C-alpha cells in the first residue's frame, strides 16, 4: 500500500529512530542498529502488549501453557519485525526513494 498522497518515501519522511539503520552500509553497523532498535524500542512494546492482552508474566521460569504461548508470540513478533527491518534496509532507501508498501509500525497489528 502506498502512502495516502502517493509520493515516494525518502529518508526525510522516515522516523529518526529508523534513520541510522537505513543509512548503515556495513553488516556490523546494520546489526548494531538493528539490535538497538529491537532491544530499546520493539521489545518493551511487544512485552507490554503481550503481557496485557494475554495476562501473562513472560518469565521463562513460569512454565504454565498460557505463559509459554505468550513467550512464543513475543518471539514471533520480534522475528517478524527483524525480518521486516532487514527487508526495508535491503532496499537502500537512503540511496533512492522507495514506495512505501505499508507503514512499518502497523506490521504486528496485521498478523
The number of helical runs is 4
Mean pLDDT: 80
Percentage of residues in strands: under 5%
What composes the largest sheet? Answer: none
Would you report the number of β strands?
A: 0
Q: What is the overall shape?
A: elongated
Low-confidence stretches: none
The helicity comes to 55-70%
* First-residue to last-residue Cα separation: 16 Å
The number of domains: 1
Question: What gyration radius follows from the Cα positions, in whole Å?
Answer: 16 Å
Looking at the chains present, what oligomeric state does this protein adopt? single chain
- Structural class assignment: mainly alpha
* Strand/helix succession: HHHH
How would you explain this protein's 3D organization?
- With 111 residues, the protein is mainly α.
- The protein has one domain.
- Helices cover 57% and strands 0% of the residues.
- It has helices spanning 19-23, 27-54, 65-90, 107-110.
- Helix 2 runs antiparallel to helix 3.
- It is elongated.
- The model has no long low-confidence stretch (mean pLDDT 80).
Task: Write the topology of this structure.
Elements lengths: L18 H5 L3 H28 L10 H26 L16 H4 L1
Structure summarized in a few sentences:
It contains 4 helices and no strands. By secondary structure, it is mostly helical.
Give descriptors for this structure.
111 residues, mainly alpha, 4 helices, 0% strand
Amino acid at each position: 500500500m502506498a502512502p495516502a498522497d502517493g509520493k515516494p518515501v525518502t529518508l526525510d519522511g522516515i522516523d529518526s529512530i529508523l534513520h541510522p539503520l537505513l543509512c548503515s552500509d556495513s553488516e556490523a553497523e546494520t546489526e548494531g542498529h538493528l539490535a538497538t532498535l529491537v532491544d530499546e524500542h520493539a521489545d518493551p512494546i511487544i512485552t507490554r502488549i503481550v503481557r496485557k492482552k494475554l495476562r501473562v508474566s513472560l518469565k521463562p521460569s513460569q512454565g504454565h501453557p498460557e505463559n509459554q504461548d505468550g513467550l512464543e508470540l513475543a518471539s514471533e513478533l520480534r522475528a517478524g519485525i527483524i525480518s521486516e527491518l532487514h527487508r526495508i534496509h535491503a532496499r537502500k532507501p537512503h540511496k533512492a526513494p522507495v514506495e512505501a508498501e505499508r507503514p512499518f509500525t502497523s506490521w504486528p497489528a496485521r498478523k
